[in-house]
Amino acid sequence: MRITNVEPFVCTGGLREFGFLKVTTDEGIVGWAETYDWHTSASLWAALRVIGRSLVDQDPLRIELMNERLWYRGRPGVPERMKVVAALDIALWDIKAKWLGVPVHTLLGGKLRDRIPLYWSHFATYRAIWPDVIGAEPTSTYADWAAGARDVVAQGYRVLKTNLVQEPAAPGGRPRLAEYRDGAMAPRTIDEAVTWIGTIRDVVGPGIGISLDVQFEYKLAAIVELARALEPFDLYWLEVESFDAGALRAAADRTTTRLCHGESLIRREQFRPFLQEHATDVVMLETLANGISEARRIAELAEVYETTVSPHNWMSPLGTLINAHLCAVLPNAEILEIDIDDVPWKHDLLTAPLEIEDGQLLVPDRPGWGADIVEEVVAAHALPASRLA
Amino acid sequence: MTRGRRVAAVTALALRTPEQVSAGDDTARLLLQVEAEDGQRGMGVGPRTDPSAWLAALRLIETLVVGEDATEMGRIDERITRAASDGLDVPLMQAARGALGTALHDLTGHLLGVAAYDLLGGRFHESVPAIQTLPALGPDTDARSTLDAAGTALDAGFRRFRLVIDRSFLLVDRAQMASAIDSVAAVRRFIGDGQFLVAVRGSMDVSAVIAFARGLERRGVDGLQIEGLGRDGVRALRRAVRLSIAIGPVPTLARLLPYLETHATDRVMIDDASVGPAAARQQADLAYHFEHMVIHDGGDVAIGLLVALHLAVAMPATELVGISPAAWQEAAEVLDQPVRFDAGAMRPPDGPGLGASVRSDRLERLNG
């Protein structure tokens, strides 16, 4: 079997862009991957076209060889290159599994679990800030937003994750996210955060996990201030981003709030300092930027340092399937993110639907990832010309 | 689950040479065989232990594995890890897990129609340079047997050698250590200028290791493989000599990590047959991440050699595959497919699973 074509696709995805990669073989087997970039998918699309040509006529079963050669043949260490390698890696796993007639998880050592616990991500964020994107009615109070948590719990989710959404500053205004101050904490943000999380906690009670994601918004002092302020609510985790393992460890030492970190990191080299410092309680890894091969290794490295993992999963349902296979085989996979509020047509992208029961994703046993991309749906939501390279 | 993939039986087997059978020698190579419902089989290597103990371990494993999907190797391994093993010692159960892992990779390869290396990431290397392990030198062994083995290996085309030194050779006094160093030097002169490593087997005092290593440095030895030194001992050794230092075999990832983090070592030796393919892959990945190269070794067993070869060709971290004269001879005698060796490099047989099986006429079933 030989690779005959490598073709990327991009389309709008509401608040981000979706990118996919289709790798075709001379035996008619097609491997699908999802790529990872929020708003510059066109550049990744171009890189995949150029680098993908070097894979034509190669053996798709030699996944490890492809990974090593592509990473070191160019300038290794550049994250964008890793995204290219990751997408190709993911597509080749799909091909290999389909060729053998098995799900990808069989090739990764077989399932440890048949169901993956999910957490409802961006809870209330889209409804508050971008209701038109997801087709929701605009709402503007903490009470309105928190009321939706009853639906989350009713559907069986045991954890939800939200952001620092804030009520309008004045009557008639629009809800917003917390003011960004280049790493510092704005004066009223702590009070608003306490009010927001407290409102959710009042609705869901003590048994439901509440996570808060603040990404790169804050540096050390502000992380500590926020984490301490939210200690009474016993967060499931506070999700932060940092490239400084020492700083994150310092923050972890000053709060009892559980920390989650890592979605911006590439390869084990970037994760290791954080693991060695035991700077985070949960590693969030971006499978689509690392590839299945490297993501598994990152998770295994985390396990050696006695840390659980939770993949970042903010892209299309194909990304969810890819992460499902990974979580199915990892002993230290804790929980998987999913966006239930999203563009209404998202699920039309797959040839077979996701199966979610009681807040858990059923791991598919169909060959490959378990579903392919419907190219017509991608074409129906093309990027505008201004977003193309 | 596809019909036929469920495990139907786990069997303890013994492999005896014809000479052992005719002499009534009970010493045997212990093996584990897993059979699926569709009749396909996989095999793994047991430890050197009493056959009744092996049988007891496999009886426990059988209760946990029969009826499970053979391709769900991670789930099976987790079941065994969590199971109580009352009355069975930890090393024995670890060995049983490793043997089962090899057998399941062999079986899964057969069930899916692919080579075991395809379950480990695919073929990375076409072939792997082989390093021949020479018989151990000790105070009571005849160095001529070591030189004879080296001569045979040179004639067969091997150019890289690893000499095992029993720790007892180094523990008594300086005179005995000097004798050990002279013996090593004699081997070095005999084999010529190919890569030459010395492996010290067993735990020992770091000062003795350092003294020995300094002696080896002056005799043209390329590297030292250490099994029984703690992390601080390895650090001290690193400060004392310029030799390449390989660590291993180490039974678990958690125990390997501290050595890697020191970067006092630069190679890792993995006993693939003992830890099993999944754990060996993880060790190799971890080693490579810490910029160590790996020597895959299957011990002195033909099945062990096969699993080491599959791991070796699959892993980017591979520098060498270790082979002992016993494994080489056993492979030639009992395997139904040849291991290929050409220009100092080896590759596994083509074919699904491990690519070769032990001839059925050489196997006996162990019964309690």
Describe this structure in words.
- In chain A, the strands form four sheets. Chain A has a six-stranded parallel beta sheet with strand order 5-8-9-10-11-12. Chain A has a four-stranded mixed beta sheet with strand order 13-4-15-14, with helices on one face.
- With about 400 residues, chain A is an alpha/beta fold.
- Chain A has helices at about 40-50, 65-75, 80-100, 105, 125-130, 130-135, 140-145, 150-155, 190-205, 220-230, 245-255, 265-275, 285-305, 315-330, 375-380; strands spanning about 5-15, 15-25, 30-35, 115-120, 160, 165, 175, 210-215, 235-240, 260, 280-285, 310, 335-340, 355, 360.
- Chain A contains 15 helices and 15 strands.
- The mean pLDDT of chain A is about 95.
- Helix content of chain A is about 40%, strand content about 20%.
- Chain B has about 375 residues and is α/β, with parallel strands linked by helices.
- In chain B, helix 3 (about 75-80) runs antiparallel to helix 4 and helix 10 runs parallel beside helix 12 (about 275-290).
- Chain B contains 14 helices and 14 strands.
- At the A-B interface, helix 2, helix 12 and helix 13 of A face helix 3, helix 10 and helix 12 of B.
